[in-house]
């Protein structure tokens, strides 16, 4: 991709597009800053795959901040993404217990401590939910995902799963939800 | 009593904003009136939110993966390589900053080590110095006089004005000395005459004679002087005091005469120890007050026998003066190479004619034989 056919959009436009789920903007955002992160990771004993993981996690941090309206950007978007990636990579390195956690930096840094603390909390919740859903098994998992994530109506679900009537589907959903609740809160409350 | 399933349904509808007006009112009422139900509503809300977040993230991830899969990785790699080049072009200070950031921990460690080493060394040196300080407590009682500004040669060439010149320039170091024999041999301390260019002795009357160093013994700090071919020096027939080489008892009343200033000064005390500084067996410790300039003066007992030569004092202790024993004076004299003495040996008398005299009369006689020793040296 060359400079000429690149979209010329500002940070604000990128963030707005990210918030309302524009695939075009997301793609532009992804392409714009991936080389920077790739460079960071590769220069600090990481692979291309590491770079991909770190960059995607960084974008998740950004995305979840944007969609929950809690992003307070005090610096360039570039600096923000770099700082988050850097922190995530440092954490990754310390997990792998490598020595020399001082990275070779090429960009300015911004304070992203709070954002990363938020992110860790979300991470825990996400992992817990993924784990709970795994243990819940089918068809409960799909049923609950359809209802709570994809927002299908009970009527749609009744048809999709071939229940005789909507009440049956409701009973099934209720049972599934109760099980998920037990699985999820048994761990969630301990934390 | 509403059953669980129905209430759960209501919560779902409430979360989706699908409750009818009447249902909503009833639901709100139930929540407010029953804390257990309210708790359940809360939990379900949390659960639904966690599910929604989970879905959102999974969805976002798959979008990212789709984008990533469609990336032209070669172009991205090229661009990643350019990142560094662009940075380097734009900022020369970047390298230094990078180095600083990379080596900051190492620098910190190095700096700490340097600091610890520095202060550790300083402390060790201080400790060493303080443990050896006592050596410095032994101060030699010579008097450092005002330094001369004029060339010394000029003074010496002007022989006629010798006396005047010497009085104008009283030398750099002064101490005391006294006659060993009537024919002009004197004893003083080596530390007074060391590095001397020329040595002069001055009597209580103010007569000045040039003297030469016959022998200097650093070990005992004793130096033998001889009045140097000076016709003006009138030799005496006999010295008033004798020399007592035997040990003197503790508590013996002693006195000294010396030149802590231009005038002769008398000092009186008692023998307080048979050894000198740090158990030095060549010296006595005397309780007598001395000042710079007293060095080289005779230490005499009650009867007027010379029992030692004042050499120094301990600065940290009041009234601890040290005097080299006469015995070692004899040893020093016997160590003098006979060549140095030329024609005559030093004839020292053990007889003393002062025993029966009162102290005032003793002093009158003795002071004739005590001289101020003035030393000139090049300024360093």
Automatic annotation (TrEMBL), chain A:
Domain RNA polymerase sigma-70 region: 29-98
Pfam family, one: Sigma70_r2
Key words, A-Z: DNA-binding, Sigma factor, Transcription, Transcription regulation
GO biological process: DNA-templated transcription initiation
Annotated Gene3D superfamilies: 1.10.1740.10, Winged helix-like DNA-binding domain superfamily/Winged helix DNA-binding domain
InterPro entries noted in UniProt: RNA_pol_sigma-70-like (IPR039425), RNA_pol_sigma-70_dom (IPR014284), RNA_pol_sigma70_r2 (IPR007627), RNA_pol_sigma_r2 (IPR013325), WH-like_DNA-bd_sf (IPR036388)
GO molecular function, one term: sigma factor activity
Alphabetical list of SUPFAM superfamilies matching this protein: Sigma2 domain of RNA polymerase sigma factors
Protein name: Sigma-70 family RNA polymerase sigma factor
């Amino acid at each position: 991709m060359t400079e000429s056919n690149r979209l010329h959009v500002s940070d604000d436009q990128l963030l707005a597009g990210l918030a309302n789920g524009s695939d075009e903007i997301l793609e532009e955002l992804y392409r714009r800053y991936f080389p920077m992160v790739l460079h960071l990771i590769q220069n600090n004993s990481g692979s291309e795959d590491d770079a991909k993981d770190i960059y995607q996690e960084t974008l998740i941090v950004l995305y979840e901040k944007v969609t929950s309206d809690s992003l307070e950007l005090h610096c360039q978007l570039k600096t923000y993404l770099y700082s988050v990636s850097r922190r995530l990579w440092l954490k990754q390195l310390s997990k792998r217990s490598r020595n020399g956690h001082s990275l070779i930096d090429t960009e300015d840094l911004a304070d992203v401590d709070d954002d990363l603390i938020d992110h860790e909390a979300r991470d825990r919740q996400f992992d817990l939910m993924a784990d709970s859903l795994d243990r819940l098994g089918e068809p409960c998992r799909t049923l609950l995902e359809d209802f709570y994530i994809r927002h299908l109506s009970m009527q749609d679900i009744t048809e999709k799963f071939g229940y005789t009537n909507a009440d049956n589907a409701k009973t099934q959903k209720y049972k599934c939800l109760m099980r998920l609740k037990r699985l999820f809160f048994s761990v969630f409350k301990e934390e | 009593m509403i059953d669980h399933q129905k209430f759960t349904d209501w919560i779902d509808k409430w979360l989706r904003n699908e409750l009818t007006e009447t249902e909503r009112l009833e639901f709100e009422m139930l929540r407010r009136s029953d804390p257990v139900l309210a708790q359940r509503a809360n939990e379900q809300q949390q659960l639904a939110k966690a599910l929604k977040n989970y879905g959102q993230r999974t969805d976002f991830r798959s979008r990212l993966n789709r984008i990533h899969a469609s990336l032209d990785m070669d172009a991205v790699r090229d661009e990643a390589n350019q990142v560094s080049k662009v940075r380097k072009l734009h900022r020369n200070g970047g390298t230094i900053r990078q180095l600083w950031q990379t080596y900051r921990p190492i620098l910190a460690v190095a700096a700490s080590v340097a600091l610890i080493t520095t202060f550790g060394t300083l402390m060790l040196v201080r400790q060493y110095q303080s443990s050896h300080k006592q050596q410095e407590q032994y101060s030699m009682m010579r008097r450092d006089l005002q330094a001369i500004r004029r060339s010394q040669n000029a003074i010496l060439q002007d022989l006629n004005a010798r006396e005047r010149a010497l009085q104008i320039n009283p030398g750099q170091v002064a101490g005391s000395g006294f006659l060993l024999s009537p024919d002009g041999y004197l004893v003083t301390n080596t530390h007074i005459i060391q590095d001397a260019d020329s040595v002069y002795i001055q009597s209580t009357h103010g007569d000045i004679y040039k003297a030469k160093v016959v022998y200097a013994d650093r070990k005992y700090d004793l130096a033998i002087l001889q009045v140097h071919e000076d016709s003006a020096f009138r030799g005496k027939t006999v010295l008033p005091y004798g020399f007592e080489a035997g040990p003197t008892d503790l508590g013996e009343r002693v006195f000294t005469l010396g030149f802590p200033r231009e005038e002769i000064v008398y000092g009186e005390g008692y023998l307080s120890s048979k050894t000198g500084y740090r158990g030095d067996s060549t010296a006595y410790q005397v309780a007598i007050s001395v000042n710079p300039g007293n060095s080289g003066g005779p230490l005499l007992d009650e009867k007027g026998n010379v029992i030692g030569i004042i050499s120094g004092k301990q600065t940290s202790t009041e009234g601890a003066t040290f005097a080299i024993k006469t015995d070692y004076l004899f040893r020093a004299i016997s160590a003098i190479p006979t060549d140095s003495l030329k024609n005559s040996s030093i004839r020292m008398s053990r007889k003393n004619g002062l025993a029966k005299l009162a102290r005032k009369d003793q002093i009158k006689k003795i002071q004739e034989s005590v001289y101020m020793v003035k030393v000139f040296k090049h300024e360093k």
